[in-house]
Amino acid sequence: MKASVIALFFAMVVISFFPAMILAEDQTQEKKVSQQIDKKEKATSEDSVDIPHSQVLKEEPLDYGLLIQIIGITVGALLIIWQIGRQYKNNIELQRENNREKLKLEIYSDYRKTISNAQKKIISASAESQAIDGAFKFHFDQIQSSGSSFPMRPRAKNMQDVHFAATASLTDLVYLIEEFEIINPNLEIFRLAYSCAIHCLNKAFFPFHQELLEFLPCDVPLQDQARLGAEVLGPRKEVSREDLERISQRATLYNEEAWEASCYVSDLAKVAQNIFLGKLFSHTLPSRKPLDPKHIVLSIEPPKFQKLKKYFLEETEWGKEHKNAEKRVREELQERPTSLQ
What pTM did the predictor assign? Predict the structure, then answer.
């Protein structure tokens, strides 16, 4: 910008000197013409010829030097005005771009916190299910080898708490995506995926939790300990081999659903970085590449987005139930009597 201003200054200097040069040359020619006119007037006076005053007057030549100088000043002023306008427009655009990038960073901060919280909650739920599965196997082996075992430490209440914390964190992600969906409408795919993941986690949790209520000890609330005369209530029955296999299968199923949800959250973390930080760092992150191609990878790219949307809405159990629920609501609305006008 400084270089352009300096160039303009020198251009104006050259333009201002150019009319002066032309003016000097015109003045020299005018001087010669004036000398010739004086000689002619002197000759006519000597001949005593009476020439009318109107014929003696000569037309004065136009002052081209002044005209050129005015044109040069006008052109220079216009160039300066154009340059100032251009700089102003560039500054406004730069400010807008800076404000956009600042807003992106603020939104990304919300995304990062919510994504991080969801990952922690889901991993905690998955770890708790695995710990419970391991505790049941250890307890069963102790009974088989020695005929007795220490009471198991896991509690159904703990599994319940971490599960609902995980599903609540996924719900928070759904709300966040809805709040800023204008950033990219294809972010809708994450809303669908997380709604489906919540459905799958709940479906795996409730049968698993029912087993835990039957086979795990239960802590008595402090206000009820005196009435019941105990701090911990033992399990309703001991675990058989068939019970152990069933509990292990349900724990494994819950763990698989939790890890699937965790992968969906990881996909959003990469997409969010590409949207909000890609321009800042001049590159983007590639999509997740699972070893098993059967696993779903979420993406907002148009071809993949349409395919994924169709999968979640038409092929998953959640999508089918969601579609049936919408159908029932429409049928109920059609059956309602119309209000009187």
Answer: 0.71
